[in-house]
Amino acid sequence: MWRYVWPEFARDHRVVLFDHVGFGSSAVSTWDRDRYATLDGYAQDVLEICRELDLSDVVFVGHSVSAMIGVLAAAAAPDRFGRLVLIGPSPRYLDDDGYRGGFTVDDIEGLLQSMDSNYLGWSSAMAPVIMGNEDRPALSAELTNSFCRTDPEIAAHFARVTFLSDNRQDLARVPTPSLVLQCAQDAIAPEAVGEYVHRSLPNSRYVALDATGHCPNLSAPEETVASIRAFLAE
């Protein structure tokens, strides 16, 4: 998912790529339902990677829910992190009083029920919505294939943890300089959500990308790289 982005930084940064447990090439056998009952389990994984590799002054780049996992990791161990790059972050997907997350309770329950009953069908239907860029069907096909390679039980559990999470209060705990990258026409994390994250982080910069959809790391890598570069140069 990052193949168009990470090589642009490898010449002057140490780049550490990882798959969250249960996904990609991770050791699926180590996935534990209780450990990953909240996003904190994934944040602890990030900190374990930092300790194992003795990383400091880390620039954490996280997309979508992984952005909030980075926020939780930085809140727990701020001395580890120099910068956060948050692409399409959302601290809460459900609408609330005075807060627009983009989804109603019925929306989320319908989504989760669809995953439980027909995961492959859900994958092929949701990937184009998440990706956007209807004129570039290859992007949606790649995302669909990524979903289909994941264990349906793990994916459904992760989706429930993600879409029912509420990490709004955690944003204020993060002093780390942060970049919020927001796409237009993002069906998963609307612009109002990105603006909320920006307002709630004590030290953040907000950039509205020209890119559309929810995955600029695939659909607009040049703009994504340029925005991160500009942030790191500040």
Descriptive overview:
There is one protein chain. This protein is an alpha/beta fold and 234 residues long. The protein has a single domain, classed as 3-Layer(aba) Sandwich (Rossmann fold). It is 45% helix and 12% strand. The chain contains 10 helices and 4 strands, in the order ααβαβααααβαβαα. A 4-stranded parallel beta sheet has the order 1-2-3-4, sandwiched between helices. α8 (191-200) links the parallel β3 and β4 (204-212). α4 (105-117) crosses α5. The radius of gyration is 17 Å and the shape is globular. The protein starts with 6 loop residues before the first helix and ends with a helix. The model has no long low-confidence stretch (mean pLDDT 94).
Helix-strand layout with pairing:
Elements: H1 7-10, H2 40-52, E1 58-63, H3 65-76, E2 81-87, H4 105-117, H5 119-131, H6 137-148, H7 152-163, E3 178-184, H8 191-200, E4 204-212, H9 216-219, H10 221-232
Parallel strand pairs: 1-2, 2-3, 3-4
Helix pairs in contact: 2-3, 4-5, 4-7, 5-6
